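A common beginner's mistake is to predict each chain separately and then try to dock the pieces by hand. The better habit, illustrated here, is to supply every component at once so that their relative placement is modeled jointly.
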Amino acid sequence: AQSVTQPDIHITVSEGASLELRCNYSYGATPYLFWYVQSPGQGLQLLLKYFSGDTLVQGIKGFEAEFKRSQSSFNLRKPSVHWSDAAEYFCAVGAGDMRFGAGTRLTVKP
Amino acid sequence: EAQVTQNPRYLITVTGKKLTVTCSQNMNHEYMSWYRQDPGLGLRQIYYSMNVEVTDKGDVPEGYKVSRKEKRNFPLILESPSPNQTSLYFCASSLAPGQGASMNTEAFFGQGTRLTVV
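With all components supplied together, the output reads:
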């Protein structure tokens, strides 16, 4: 069965610093992979997705993610974090029948 | 505008009183799902549906029912709610892999329903 692990429950970074959020997945075939962001009290917004092709995918708000099949990972990165990036981030796997990780809460220090 | 609409947004009810949360999508999506979100647990799938009259259990189906009589609607039914079903609920829809001309199978989410059972 497909599953997702986000090892970091909470991460704090300083504004302007780089960010990497980790995601590991378990899936029987070529995975459909997603990152969503949820701001406090809000719904979920898609940041980026991977289906096939180039393993480095670009998303909205300056985020990117790299698919590494050998490591079963799909880590999210941003070179310079802004205070408005403070939110909860969810990695997800699957097409139609989608499974989510437990989420990583990002705090941004001024 | 393409959207997934859930109602109600907020609901407080008492233990044992049957309730239904409605979900409707206008994108002709094959797949629809219900999730509950609890702190520290992320989104856990309750039920999903691959098509009209085709539904299957997700990871936490106990205490919930669903139906898919029409493609656009996927209501979530709590026959006898209990306090441990207090949660934030999301409905989602997506294309099935290969459906349509695109490979875009990301899920589109409703705004959520915050349910409190006392």
